[in-house]
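Need the bound structure for pyridoxal-5'-phosphate, inputs here:
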Amino acid sequence: MLTPNLHYGELKDSYLFARIAEKTAKYCEDHPGTHLLRMGIGDVSQPLCPAVIAALHEAVEDQARAETFHGYLPECGAPFLRQTIAEYYQKRGVSLAADEVFVSSGASDELGHILDLFDPGAAALIPEPAYPAYVDANVMAGRKILHLPTGRTQGFLPEPEAVPGAELIYLCSPNNPTGAVLDRERLRAWVDVANRTGAVILFDAAYEAFIADDALPHSIFEIEGARTCAIEICSLSKTAGFTGTRLGYTIIPKELERQGMSFNAMWVRNRTTKSNGVSYILQKGGAAVFTDEGQCQVRETLQIYKENARVMGQTLSRLGIWYTGGKNAPYIWMACPKGYGSWEFFDLLLREIQVVGTPGEGFGACGEGYFRFSAFGDPSDTAEAMRRLEKLLGGK
Ligand code: PLP
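Answer from helper R.:
Posting the output first, comments after.
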């Protein structure tokens, strides 16, 4: 009889967002007609920008005519998009060859697939609180996980340290869920650790576009030495509202090798075997994000989310509740007031003010007692949620 992948049996409970969806669906079923103010899952509320929409329309038209029709594209990405992304990095002083850029269907897909490159015996170091897919993808792969808890005293930033046995190191900056950002010094120290120990850093830059402070690095490749120890995974989901459209990119430098094997060459082999690439239409739409017009328009949308974060931060400050994030990231990470546990606080907000947030415990045990609000919501819903929160907790 076939043996299934028994590691699936080791997955903890149901996936965080599935549990939230289940609880909110139950609430709506019991309270028909309720409008929930959704500030939980990190999905965006604003539409794609006009430059992207125009490019998508044009690409659809291209597919209607024999002279401009595209069939299969190169598996690792259309040359025009790989080049455009390399030029985007160059603007920040990072030199990449176009064939070090791999176009993907999004960061989540890539975070799962990329594990193919590493020995199943290689342990993964995951600083927590963390995006839950890091842990779950490694559990499914049967990989050993070394949890590295972070806390309030460190600003929820992982201290660079050589953890014995850690061969894969996950770093997410700006961080989901805490909004914390690694500065150059700390990131350099992590790069040094990886180069010293031979570990590989998986750097998740899904929120790089939210960085407002010019001194903070957007890419790990802004740090000297990163080309020999890092892979960067990025996405247009949050930068440009592609959560439902799906496009991302992954950077694997040519110098990244272990035991004489090039990860760039291995990923080319992987993609040409396990993928037939990303749709021409989406790649055209994605390229429009990087034009001057596209950049200007996506920044306007990001401003809406930043304003949401400001409103949330201001409310929590007035309530005297500790929080971090929101300035260089679209997430606010707050301490649950009055000693509430994070799922208890979730239930309270759903029941009393119909606001949906994300319990910190879902991002790792050290997230217990904390709660995440996303700034991606509709601005009027966000403002209303904060009014209700202030009334509920401020007793006014
Ligand atoms: N990485 C982080 C840290 C995220 O928060 C998310 C989505 O919320 C992703 C990756 C996945 O992004 P994508 O939509 O590109 O799959």
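Comments: The chain has twelve helices and 15 strands. The chain has a mean pLDDT of 96.
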